[in-house]
Write a structure and sequence with these properties.
alpha+beta; 58% helix; membrane; transmembrane helix; Small integral membrane protein 1; transmembrane; SMIM1
């Protein structure tokens, strides 16, 4: 099936009793496909695992530094 220029996607089920129409508002189908491709690339495979690990480490350090600074100012001697 060739990509359509409009923002309407049509697919027919095998039992032919249900037709499905999707309307993509505000963006073309080519843009949606490119975002899908990018998200699939960044969220799966080795690169996806590396991104999740780096995100977890960055989140850990952000919370650690925020907690350290909060504790410092809360328990600071006058």
């Amino acid at each position: 099936m060739q990509p359509q220029e409009s923002g309407v996607q049509y697919s027919r089920w095998e039992d032919r009793s249900r037709d499905e129409v999707h309307v993509v508002a505000g963006s073309s189908t080519e843009e949606a496909w490119s975002w899908e491709r990018i998200s699939r690339k960044l969220c799966s495979g080795r690169l996806g695992i590396a991104m999740k690990v780096l995100g977890g480490v960055a989140l850990f350090w952000a919370v650690f530094i925020l907690g350290y600074l909060t504790g410092y100012y809360v328990h600071k001697c006058k």
